[in-house]
Amino acid sequence: xIEEQFEQAVAQLNESLNLAKVDNILxxxxxxxxxxxxxxxxxxxxxxxxNINPEEQTAEWVDRAEKFATDNFVTLEKVAQKNASDLYxxxxxxxxxxxxxxxxxxxxxxxxANVVMPYFNGWFLGAYYAYIAxxxxxxxxxxxxxPTETQAIAKAASDRAEKEVEIERRKFNRPIYRQSMLQEMLxxx
Length: 189
What we know:
mainly alpha
């Protein structure tokens, strides 16, 4: 059912598609993925720091961790709106890739993959920036954070986010996860 709704939503986008508005259509999906990645990264790090296995995470613990992450995500959203920020440039670049895909390979039509990819690209960005913030806080607690540590933190955050987004992409092939992710994408369209 949700897959049919998603298919219909994509078809509706194409009925009156204005190629100049593709970024405006796909950016909310990317931002939804970014929020999910940001929250998931917080959940993972908090669980590791507190040494809590997934089966031991109570609904209250998850709610508290998600609220903390969601409250802090507001700052990242503001950075994403600033034209001079690295994050803004990264988002524009990812959306440009989808625009190119749509105009050069999909005959000026948005395909389902053109909606799914921005979600996962956003998921990566959200996780990456969450890991940078969390790893920096952990490093600061142990001492100073200079240029060497900053580079190491960025590399570790990128590696971890890449590994985790690949896991999320594989989960997308499982119906229960797919339906949940498609629901998030539909809500953003």
